[in-house]
Amino acid sequence: MRKVATGWLLGILTLPILGLGMAWLGLLPSHATAPPPAWEKAIAQMALERYVARHAQRVANPVAATDENLLAGMQVFKDACAGCHGDPGATSDYGASFYPNVPQFAKHPPRLPDYQLFWIIRNGIRYSGMSAWDRQWDKNQATSDDRIWKVALFLSRLDTLPPAVDAAWRGKQP
């Protein structure tokens, strides 16, 4: 029994020790020009999704899904987010220069509920270029949160925007 326990313990410890040794020796890739391997992307995405699901408070979006609020959310997005996350008229994929690559919402809308988008926007994402927006424009928490809720409202409905809002988003005349 002692040999089994010793073998099990050594087996469990070997992989983390090997990983730390590779990091210490400088053998793990850290340059941002190579795309991350699929396993790294899968683990990072899973960790982010689980963390947000666990920590984001499940609250209803206090902002009604009116054309006016969707347009306001779109305007905040275009002013503060589109530079990295893109828009339908973008001629370059600026977000691809980040590591990890920034999601391009015009091509791949987020599939998260409003409250999770709100949490991500407000708190940011560690080890990425996504900074926390908490009170970024206004020291008044309510005003700052209102802007964040409007962006979350807009992003969560990118696939189902009303015709007038969709035309404004795509730069077409209604």
Summarize the structure.
The protein is 53% helix and 0% strand. By secondary structure, it is mainly α.
Describe this structure in words.
With 174 residues, this protein is an all-alpha fold. The protein contains seven helices and no strands. The chain has helices spanning 2-24, 38-55, 67-80, 82-85, 114-123, 141-156, 163-170. Helix 3 crosses helix 6 and helix 5 (114-123) packs across helix 6 (141-156). The chain is elongated, with a radius of gyration of 21 Å. The mean pLDDT is 87.
What is the overall silhouette?
Answer: elongated
Percentage of β-strand residues: under 5%
Number of strands: 0
The biggest sheet, with number of strands, parallel, antiparallel or mixed sense and barrel status, is: none
Q: Which regions are unreliable across 5 or more consecutive residues at pLDDT < 50?
A: none
Number of helices: 7
The helical percent reads: 40-55%
Computed structural class = mainly alpha
The whole-angstrom Rg is 21 Å
**How are helices and strands ordered from N to C?**
HHHHHHH
Cα(first) to Cα(last) distance is 76 Å
Write a concise keyword list for the protein shown above:
174 residues, elongated
Chart the SSEs and their pairings.
Elements: H1 2-24, H2 38-55, H3 67-80, H4 82-85, H5 114-123, H6 141-156, H7 163-170
Helix pairs in contact: 3-6, 3-7, 5-6
